[in-house]
Amino acid sequence: MQRFSLAVLLMLLIPFKVNAEEIVKKDDLLNLDQCIEIAIKKHPDIAAAVNTVGISQSRVGQAKAGYYPQIEWSSGYRRYSPIGSISDRSFDEYSSSVTLKQNIFDFGKTTTQVNIQRLNLRSSNSDLEDTMQQILFNVKQAYYGVLQAGRNRDVAIEVVKQYEQHLEQAKGFYDVGTKPKIDVTKAEVDLSNTKLNLIKAENSLRISKATLNNAMGAPDMPEYKIKDTLSFQKYEISFEDAIHKAYENRPNLKSIISRKQSAEESIGLAEKGYYPVLSGNASYNWSGERFPIENGWDAGVTVTFPIFSGFLTKNQVEEARLNLNVLKVNEESLRQKIFLEIQQAYLNLQESAERISVAEITVKQAEENLDLAKGRYEVGLGNSVELTDAMVTYTNAKTAYNQALYDYKIAEASLLKGMGDK
Questions:
Q1: Does 41 have pLDDT greater than 50?
Q2: CA-CA distances (angstroms) from residue 328 to 259, 263, 322?
Q3: Alpha-helix residue ranges (DSSP H) falling in 230-311
Q4: Cα separation of 183 and 173, whole Å?
Q5: DSSP β-bridge partners for residue 80
């Protein structure tokens, strides 16, 4: 999986709100990489994940604020009249001050908070990568689904043409008296059924394209064509290498490891609640009843000792430890799920590769059988049932071959996703 920095992703997402027509023109020919690029630019889930990374980056800056001095300005006015005073005179009082506060030593609280937010940022980056990988997988799955549906539609068109030819032959034989009327009737019924199958295949193709558009985050895409890459290319990797890569690269595993490290830091942060805090402060003040008002300054150091907080710190430490335990268990659970995911994808890859080899042979045999059935019917030796059976066998063989190619591509994409790869 290619790594993207936040800045690069933000650049990619600049056209997020533009219309799909500005990215793809009508009748453009798109390949898989171009569809993936569109998804990166358009999909709202990626935009949300990028902004989540930005939030985590901001929280790092918030945590770092504890390193810097805090400067405040305040001004006020009040009018008061002393109760019990001999005179009924009221007084005006003006005040203004500039205050500076600086954390001097807090036993590493600020540093720990910064470390926690940095680990959370790392987790957010991993979550972003995981979101991207899921979307890229969805695009691949939908892309190959369109190719499969397109090939099945082509098979349906081919079969319709063959049944049309068969109907013409049956009518010709019937006209010269060499075949019965039932051959013509059966040919007409078979042609009608294949036309119904063609309608279904065309609708399946339209649904597949809509699914691909949705996977790219661009449901309003204009009509376009895609490059057929459903051909078989064997992907070689051992199961042990696949598992090793998955444990090393999976972004969701990296995310939970970062959150576990953050939880470990949180225990230390909670424990620091038992320790004092040393801070310095200085201020310059103006106050008085009339202008020019008097002014003065003060400076000092404050040590704050937590004596009793209603067992707050104790319970915060306990919460942090339990949260760490939860993340440890979740990590182990995720590792087991990853193992199963890789195992299933690997076995599916092997099984679909074997099916492709068998399906290729089956298609060749079905073509030969169909040619023989056609030849026999043309010379009057065969019958319409034999020819129809041969056509059905050919259709099923081609469809099964397309299914095997699709299943292999999806198994390969699943394995790559399971390994944390592109």
A1: yes
A2: 10, 10, 10
A3: 239-249, 251-271
A4: 9
A5: 91
> Is residue 77 within 8 Å of residue 47, measured between CB atoms?
no
| pLDDT tens digit sequence for 259-274 | 999 999 999 999 999 9
Please name which of 149, 156, 128, 131 lies closest in space to residue 211, comparing C-alpha atoms: 149
The whole-number pLDDT of residue 160 equals 94
Phi-psi group of 108: left, alpha or beta (phi > 0 → left; psi -120 to 50 → alpha; rest → beta) = left
The model's pTM: 0.85
Q: Minimal CA–CA distance to 350: which of 399, 404, 396?
A: 404
Cβ neighbors of 232 (< 8 A, separation 6 or more) are 353, 356, 405, 408
Mention every residue, 6+ apart, whose C-beta is less than 8 A from residue 189. Answer: none
Report d(CA 173, CA 374) in Å as an integer. 14
The structure tokens listed for 41 are 């630019």
Beta bridge partners of 94: 77, 288
Q: Other CB atoms closer than 10 Å to residue 372's CB: what's the count?
A: 14
Q: What is the mean pLDDT of residues 300-312?
A: 90
